[in-house]
Amino acid sequence: MAFREHGITTPFRVLLGGIILASLGAAGCSQPKAGPGSVSGPPKIEIVGGNTVAWGKVPPGKLKKSIKVTNTGGDTLRITNVHPSCGCTTDSLDKKVLAPGDTATIHVQIDMVTRTGPQSKSLTVTSNDSTQKDLIISLTADIIRDVVAVPEMFPVINSAKAGREDTSAVLIKNLSNAPITVQPPEISNPGEMVVRFDMTSPKVLQPGDSMKIVAHVKPISSSVVSSEVTVNTTSTMVPVIKMNLTSNASPASPPPPSAPTGGTPAPGGTVPPAKPAAKSGKPGAK
Questions:
Q1: Which DSSP string corresponds to 72-122?
Q2: Which domain holds residue 111?
Q3: 229-262 pLDDT tens trace
Q4: Is 211 a domain residue?
């Protein structure tokens, strides 16, 4: 016999409880879940890792980096332009239209082959983000060398004359704590100038030492001529030093006109005969 409590049998109470639990479970399953991309508002551009890309202390060369751009807003982000500063190049974006939560990649490269010390470049990304239409990304690096040229290229010879030899010089310094051997300089294509160097044999630079390389330049014609000079070293960090050598030559000065021997030319171009020399002796002397 089933027990009765307040007029409700036990089997009925169990059945009623099951129905209530099933209803609650169905209601819980039907509730919408908040998705990760449920951000409202306008598009917003952000650089993954921050707006500064730093290489730190690195040897000279062509530095490369992949920069991630993401849309953290609630509407479509459209990137219209990526503009690098001088000495910096970029590949095309793999994606210019970003839905909320999407990410694009910018591949950037900066040429630091001839640079030394702290360097700074920039990259400007233009988009439809109303809060920062032109987003500037800073690119920094500290280029370290164990052997350097001071200055980084031969000073331009601005006073050069065609056919006349002039000089320009640089210092090669050993900044490392070990000896470095420096080879004689070589010039790739001198063009309209004759070039010779006073350094003709290898030289070992001890730590902290320096040496001067003098270029003797004779322009062949009156023009601006530039060529690349390379100096090979035993440095593993800077095995080759590259420098420009430039001559800005003007025409050679014409020779001065020769003085006439017979006097001043008369009108018409003829030279009058020279006056006879005065007779010696006292006036009236026979």
A1: -SSS-EEEEEEEE-TTEEEPPPS-SEE-TT-EEEEEEEEEESS--EEEEEE
A2: 45-143
A3: 999 999 999 999 999 999 998 886 666 666 555 5
A4: yes
